[in-house]
User: Fold this.
Amino acid sequence: MNTSVSYAILKYNHSQILGEELNVGILLIFPELKKVEFLFPDSIQRIKKAYPDASTEIIRTYLEHFKKNVKSKAKFLDKYLSNYEDFVTEYLIPVDASSLQFTDFYHALYEGDYEKIALQYYNFFLSTYSKQVDQPRKQDKAITEVCKKLIVSKRPEIEKKLHKDFTISEEKINFTSDLYWQ
Assistant:
C-alpha cells in the first residue's frame, strides 16, 4: 500500500546577499500515520568550515528545539493537512529573513516502514555532514607526477633537487608539500 510523505528541507543561509545555502535538517510528515520527524546531523561542523563566524551553538539549539517540538505537536497535524507551511510557522520558525528557513513542502508516495523512508531522505539530503573529505584524492598524486615530469623535461638538472612530501612545522601551523626543491 502506498502511503504519502511530505517533507521540507531546513536550510542555513549565512548571508541573504550571498544567497548560499546549506542543508541542515529535514522535516518529514507522514499524515496517515500522524507522525512528524525532524532529522539533523550529529555534527554541524560543515557550517563552521564554510562560515567560520557562524554561531553553531545557536543553530544546534534551534535544531534540538525543532526535534523536540515536532514530536509534541504531531497530534495537531489534522489542522494543517492542507497547509504544512502553517504548521512550520506556528510551531517551529516564522518565515522571515533569519538564517534558518524551511523550503516549501514536497510530496511523495512510499511503500514500507516510515522510519526506513525517513532514513533514506536523511541520507540523501544530509549525508555530506558525515563524509570524510580529509583523504587526498588519487588524482592529486598523479598531478604531482605530471608536474615533476614537466619540470624535469625542461630542466633535467633539477631532478636531483626535487623531493616529495616535505612538511614545514611552526607553532600553530603544519604545511605539507607534495613536491619541493632545495
